[in-house]
Amino acid sequence: MVRFTLKHLFSSLLLTGLSGIVCLPPAALASEPIRVILDHDGGFEDYYAVLVVALASQGKTPPVKLIGVTTAPNGESYCNNSHGYPELKQTVLGTFSAAEGTIDGITQKILSVAQYSKAKIYSGCDVRTTTLSVPNETDEFGKPLAGTGYTPIRVQLPIAGKPALEPCLFHKEFVFSERDIVCWNEFNRPFRDETLKYVLPKAQDALNQFSLPELDLIRPKKKAPDFIAESICDAYRSKKPLTILSVGPVTNLARAYIKIERSPKEYGCPRKIKLSDLKSVLSTRFMGGAWDTNKADNFDANGNYRLNEPFPTWTAGNIYFQAGEHIFGMHHLPFPGTNFQAIQTGEQKKAFNSLNNAEFNFWIDALAMAKALNSGIPVSIVPLNATDSARLQGFADRLKNNPSKCATAPAQFIQTLQFANSPAPGVFVFDTLFLWDTLTATSLWNDFVNFENFHDLEITTLTNGDPTTVTGQLTAAELFRRDIGSLFRRGQVNNPVKLALTTKPASGDPDFKTTIQNYVFGLVCTAQ
């Protein structure tokens, strides 16, 4: 996901150095490849993960078998005819069609670059949508100006439905003159556009250069949650282990869980099955969250948690530690128009909520994450901290400097994409970033990360207008503005949860950057 700005902003978080044990999905213990459904939201590096898993799934004895790709309706995704797309994107799309520019269309091109036809694409778009009437003119807090008109905007809904979109009405995104709406995240829109500007054309260039056909992989008649639910029940019946690998918000997975709970027989599960019964064959791995060990940033001098203070101190990441509790938090934006960089780097580091920089994947649909964490199905998480050492720097040059080895479509796609986003001579934005999702994906079949058991994980989740969460320090109206309409409640998570806190360089490698780049180099430069 954009994550690339949010991740880049907070990728310097401190690592705890805790030692742990590796959590592998059940299939990793057997000789059979790990069966995987990859769920993503279409950010720049999500497509690297799709490409790498597809390449690793090929050959005589692959360690992993990609059986399907599902695309998220939120986060970085571009769904057709929503969020102001595609009618406002023709200048960005150029000669590409609107369908090609959707998350499904770009995913198909990436799988075509890998020439992998064994995984079909199932869209999470349009499972639930709504239309919001957005004021054409507002004040700095999003309040409509007198006499202003309204524009209807079609948006994709998260698990919480339309009430979860109410905070958008007070958000800076709705003040933009160009009505391209991504609920909650003002950073999201320009970085979604980068997939249209760079990922889409570079994937097509690779197909053209190597005369590769574009595969027909999109299955429009079956939605992502239905495919995931059916695949889970099939795994249970056949006793074939399955891993859901999610490198975006987990909306599709949460919806699949709900479908199984409500109508298990419809999806092939026994009538009286519980979600926790599926743990014998099902495991999940997520890229998301961040780990913060600086208690001073989270608690005042009296040891009280700085939740609804008007100006709490800044925290790093969206997990904090309190007397043995590890708690995921939610992202809360400051007032519209606030200088975000000043808040992030200023001496006082004041924000409107102490969880102001929660990691994007978990924040964008926290209720879906809460559903996954309360399912009883094993969860392993690769948070932002672990990805700090999975750096992309120099990888494009390495591919470029090995033309004989890397004369493949996947290698050329990555090489040209790394150099594509160049705002100034010698400055290549993508080459300064990280293999966030690729690390999470490849850790399934490589000993790349150290896991720590988290038996007492809690998640703060979205709820609107819950009076029991108001501390009295601020009025409900003020909290609505400052917390973009979202107050807090906590639900205890009883799942088996493991969190990857550090990475493991291979023997002889000076750092993990070398280890992860060596692995990806080997895949993309040997692809036939």
Automatic annotation (TrEMBL):
The keyword Signal is annotated on this UniProt entry: yes
Signal peptide: 1-30
Domain of life of the native organism: Bacteria
InterPro entries membership: Inosine/uridine_hydrolase_dom, IUNH, Ribo_hydro-like
Example GO molecular function: purine nucleosidase activity
Limits of the Inosine/uridine-preferring nucleoside hydrolase domain: 209-451
GO terms under biological process: purine nucleoside catabolic process
One cellular-component annotation, GO: cytosol
UniProt entry tagged with the keyword Isomerase: no
Keywords: Glycosidase, Hydrolase, Signal
Protein name: Inosine/uridine-preferring nucleoside hydrolase domain-containing protein
